[in-house]
Amino acid sequence: MPINSQDQVNLLKDILNNHQTDCCGSVAECEQLERLVKSLMINADVNNNVKDVLQEIYSYSQHGVNSTDLDQHIESHQQQLSEWVTNIDQFS
Fold this sequence. Notes:
Blueprint: H1 5-22, H2 27-41, H3 48-66, H4 70-75, H5 78-91
Helix pairs in contact: 1-2, 1-5, 2-3, 3-5
């Protein structure tokens, strides 16, 4: 059973919050972010303002998957992680 867009947004925010709080993550989480973003980008119910943020998150997750030091990648994006969650909250 597929999850609805609000559940997808909540899961996206949970992963981003975990990355920010823990300063670490897994390739599987980055891959999950990619799948969530792809699904939300094609959803007409998602606010267009969120789609810009989603594009940034997608790029972050792609770089994370390909990073030789994922924890460093996450650590270097601490400010953006916080901003993305805040921006998503504003528009969702």
